[in-house]
From TrEMBL:
The keyword Transport applies. Residues 1-18 form the signal peptide. This is Iron complex transport system substrate-binding protein. One of its GO terms (biological process) is iron coordination entity transport. The keyword Signal applies. Gene3D superfamilies: Nitrogenase molybdenum iron protein domain. It comes from Amycolatopsis endophytica.
Length: 324
């Protein structure tokens, strides 16, 4: 199921990661929506989108948008790659009612057009031309996929944008407050465990043609930012991409790490490269953190690029890993 990670997947230097946020036109687009006063949202492109009222029938093409909608109490009527969402995201489950839109990068325009939508939520990682096709039929707000300069702030910005468009600002404020409390509680637990300041290297990986490719979540990644708020330090020596804070490495690259806590995300829907392909690799088995039993796999279905609810799961997973 590696392919289900899709647009935030294999190569952090792919063009989708480098894509800009789109146009910065200031003209608004009118749309029918739920009852209430008109709602105006300025999206990540700087474009003003005006709805007649809070959007009720909403679709989302990326899973962070889906998670935020569900967390805000707005069950989307259309979701891209529903099976993949269920495989990778557990913080905000779907209720079985959304229609599948196809792939996240290039959703079905016909399906979107048939759903009588008030709004479509997308990110800046749609394939070329897809945004224009969607926007010709339905109002669209574009979220920024990631912001390595301020990952948690970017996560909140996306949440607030969706909340304003759907009239759920109070719920968004509660989600942010709950998350801040979660971080504070987690930091206290880390301190009580005597782990404040410990170095952590978090990653995921995949196998292609027998070769293991490792994706370090460097400083600037959302998960890393959560760990840092808990009082932990990112151990990766390399820089990540400017959107998601992700880098690339192979097993030889892991020799740059000292004796750290090595944490990683995997999923039973696909092979575990660390436990499988590298199990008998001499470089891997001789790494100090492998020899000292500091490798820990996180639970399945924690979405690394999600919203406050997914990141709260990472707080719990980090505390549990420190107790191992």
């Amino acid at each position: 199921m590696r392919i289900t990670r899709g647009l935030i997947g294999v190569s952090v230097v792919a063009a989708l990661f480098a894509a800009g946020c789109g146009t910065t036109e200031e003209t608004g687009s009118q749309a029918g929506a739920g009852g209430g006063d008109p709602v105006t949202v300025v999206d990540s492109r700087g474009k003003t989108v005006t709805l007649d009222g809070p959007a009720e029938r909403v679709a989302a093409t990326e899973w962070n948008g889906v998670e935020n909608l569900v967390s805000l109490g707005v069950m989307p009527v259309g979701v891209s790659d529903i099976e993949g969402y269920g495989t990778w995201v557990s913080a905000a489950p779907l209720d079985g009612t959304p229609k599948d839109l196809g792939t996240r990068g290039e959703p079905s325009i016909d399906t979107l057009g048939a759903l009588d939508l008030d709004l479509v939520v997308v990110t800046d990682s749609l394939t070329e031309g897809a945004l224009e096709q969607i926007e010709a039929r339905v109002p669209v707000i574009v979220l920024q996929g990631g912001d390595a300069k301020d990952p948690i702030g970017g996560m909140f910005t996306n949440l607030d944008m969706i909340a304003k468009a759907t009239g759920t600002e109070d719920r968004a404020a509660q989600l942010k407050s709950d998350f801040d409390q979660k971080l504070a509680q987690g930091r206290s637990e880390v301190d009580a465990l005597g782990a404040t300041g410990e170095k952590v290297a978090f990653s995921d990986a995949y196998v292609s043609s027998g070769t293991v490719s490792i994706r370090p979540f460097t400083k600037g990644s959302l998960v890393s930012a959560v760990f840092e708020r808990l009082g932990l330090q990112n151990a990766w020596p390399m820089e990540g991409d400017p959107a998601y804070g992700l880098a690339q490495a192979d097993v030889e690259g892991l020799t740059q790490l000292p004796d750290v806590r090595f944490w990683y995300e995997a999923n039973d829907s696909e092979a575990d490269p660390y436990a499988g392909a590298l199990a008998n690799n001499a470089i891997w088995t001789n790494l100090p953190f492998v020899e000292n039993g500091k490798v820990h796999r996180f639970p399945d279905k924690l979405w690394m690029f999600g919203g406050p609810k997914s990141m709260a799961q990472y707080v719990d997973a980090a505390i549990a890993a420190l107790k191992v």
